[in-house]
Amino acid sequence: MRIYEDRYTRERLRFHIALRFIRLEARTHTIRDWTGLTDDRIRKLYRSYLAHGGRAPARHRGKSPRRVAVFLRSARLRQESSLLASLFRLMGALPAPSAPPSLQRGLQALLVAGAPASPASLRPSLQRAQLLCEAYELYCALLVSPALGFEHAVFLLQALLQAEEITTAPCPDCQALVVMDRWALFAARCATCAADGPAGAVTAQRDCAAADLPIPPALCKTPMDAHGHARHVR
Ligand SMILES: [Zn+2]
């Protein structure tokens, strides 16, 4: 009985996630990869979704995004990719580097040995699919006009999990999570710090302000007055 209930719960979750992917305009093969449903069942699910009177989600055909360069192509895309990566991390879809040692070892071995970049721990799963949806829906809720579609979000998560071409690292000035080239020699600064001025300016400003006031990190970009004291915005 217990086995039956577990299987039933898992099947319900599978269909629930497939519907969520359909609403987010995922391609059929993406839904198949993440849920294990056949193309035929996905098509039937799509038809039944329409039968219930929901607004028809767009069906996209063709290949999903494959080039990570899109995430670094412009300041806006770098910023939005970093926001999405932060939400992945917040929701638990993207493990923190120090969280799962087994994952880290797996990645290390993967990079050293040059094995195919799809160990079992990085494969799509129903649990990760749920977290992915929650992160992407939050990303859409935060931005008026998000630049990255759901297929880009799926690709970004997979690329960050594989960490072959892009990775995440803290901004050296404010510690915000930044998506950057995996092989870059220097850590990338977030869009806000980059707009503030040359590298190190914010850190120097923080050090200077900290000498007088225990200013939290969110206020560390407060401009200095003529005496080198932090000037708060009123
Ligand atoms: Zn920063």
Characterize the structure shown.
The structure is a single chain. The chain has nine helices and two strands, in the order αααααααββαα. 51% of the residues lie in helices and 4% in strands. Among the domains are: 2-51; 68-169, no CATH class. It is elongated. A two-stranded antiparallel sheet has the order 1-2. Mean pLDDT is 78; it is low at 99-117, 206-226 and 228-234. By secondary structure, the chain is mainly α. Helix 1 runs antiparallel to helix 2, helix 1 packs parallel to helix 6 and helix 4 (75-91) packs across helix 6. The protein has helices at 2-23, 28-35, 39-51, 75-91, 101-113, 126-142, 150-162, 191-196, 201-210, and strands at residues 166-170, 177-181. Bound molecules: zinc ion (ZN). Zinc ion binds next to helix 8.
Order of helical and strand elements: HHHHHHHEEHH
**Spans where pLDDT lies below 50 across 5 or more residues:** 99-117, 206-226, 228-234
Helix content: 40-55%
* Bound compounds: zinc ion
Query: Span from first to last CA?
Result: 64 Å
Q: Please state the overall shape, judged from the principal axes of the Cα atoms.
A: elongated
Tell me the number of strands.
2
Number of helices: 9
Structural class: mainly alpha
Major sheet summary line: 2 strands, antiparallel
Strand content: under 5%
Order of strands in the sheet with most strands? 1-2
Rg from C-alpha positions?
Answer: 21 Å
Average pLDDT reading: 78
